[in-house]
Amino acid sequence: MSDESMFSNLPEHIIHHILSFLGMADIVRLSFTSKSCRESCVYISSLDFDALQYPTLRGFQDQLMNICERFLFLRNGRKLSRLCVHSQFIENRTECSRVVTMLNMAVGCDVEFLDLEFSQEEEWEMFSLPICIFHCGSLKSLTINMHCLNLKFPSALRFSNLQSLSLKSIWLVDECFGESVSCCKFLRELWLENVCGIENLTIENSNLERFSILYSYHPELCHLNISGQKLNEINVEWRFKSPLSKSVKISAPNLRYLKWVGYITGHNCLGSLMHLERVELFLQCRDLDTTQELPNIFRSVISTKDLHLHKHSIMNLHNYDPLPISSENMSGFDKVYWQSQHLEFIHQLESVSIELLDGETELELAIYILEHATKLKKMVIFYSLSLPSGFISRIGKDRMSSSPVVVLKKI
């Protein structure tokens, strides 16, 4: 029996599993070897057209797109699990029209996962997803990277059964985006990375479980309001120039994981986060008026098992309240200060990592945690300079009876 016959006689699901390890160019080559191989290639569960891998081979890109279109046509509505289209629009809108055609055919094949990435050399007004995408009942996941192209989301349309939406490097031209997402009743995960064109983003979705918004720099977004009863994970990375005009409001009573990186906004309302298991705060102040917001953020953390604080988050507390200390050399807050903050989550901590600077603030905080965190199992202390005088002896002296493991790591 020939190798070709052995391959063709394998069960269909095994053939498709083998083909899933091949790139589209290899699948195309295999489809020309025999009729049976062509049928197997046509009916694979995942199609991956990535023209961005061949930026200088324009003719090859066209041939690859032709074959992808033909594969979709020959499927004749047979179910397609995943379609990946990464394309560069160079000369005119022909490529755009062909991509839209492929998306229409994919919807006809009940596609479940769409991964789209587009780039261009010419300035266009906008790109619009075909209407059928929003009505596609089989679509569960949609990922779009537009490389700063304008994308139009029809405000009157809602995704039928979408569970995961990821948008990256997109200029949205519709302020109703938040309203549209809020109405996606099956949405579980939302990822927004450098999504521009929105000044006020309000998302209220009772089924949303994971929300991430990442901005390396975005001057337009002013107000972020996220609300959801089932939200258990929030990841915010937001940097800007003017903090006083920015605000963050979170209503997530069942939140388990919170990560906040960037600058402290002028107005914050996090509510009472009573079920947190892990908190990571890497916050800096760009304005003295925002320093008072950091203790408010701490007070919202009613309970957590794992706490990670960046050095800047602790440094920002220096300007919070004057203390009755006469010595000008004192740079930190003592245990009395931390006691006055009423940080209820301290009693729930099981793991803590903290980075030391050259002052006493971090040392006092570490000792306060060791004294009061009755459930603490491990504390990792990172330091770059020499340890403060008497540090080791104080750590040993002030530990709780639970005797947590204290690990010192130089960075």
From TrEMBL:
InterPro entries associated with the record: F-box-like_dom_sf (IPR036047), F-box_dom (IPR001810), FBD (IPR006566), FBL13/AtMIF1-like (IPR050232), LRR_dom_sf (IPR032675), LRR_FXL15/At3g58940/PEG3-like (IPR055411)
Record-linked Gene3D superfamilies: 1.20.1280.50, Ribonuclease Inhibitor
F-box domain residues: 4-35
A Pfam family assignment: F-box
Coiled-coil regions listed: none
Taxonomic superkingdom: Eukaryota
UniProt xrefs under SUPFAM superfamilies: F-box domain (SSF81383), RNI-like (SSF52047)
UniProt cross-references to PANTHER family, sorted A to Z: F-BOX/RNI SUPERFAMILY PROTEIN-RELATED, FBD DOMAIN-CONTAINING PROTEIN
Protein name: F-box domain-containing protein
Source organism of the structure: Quercus lobata
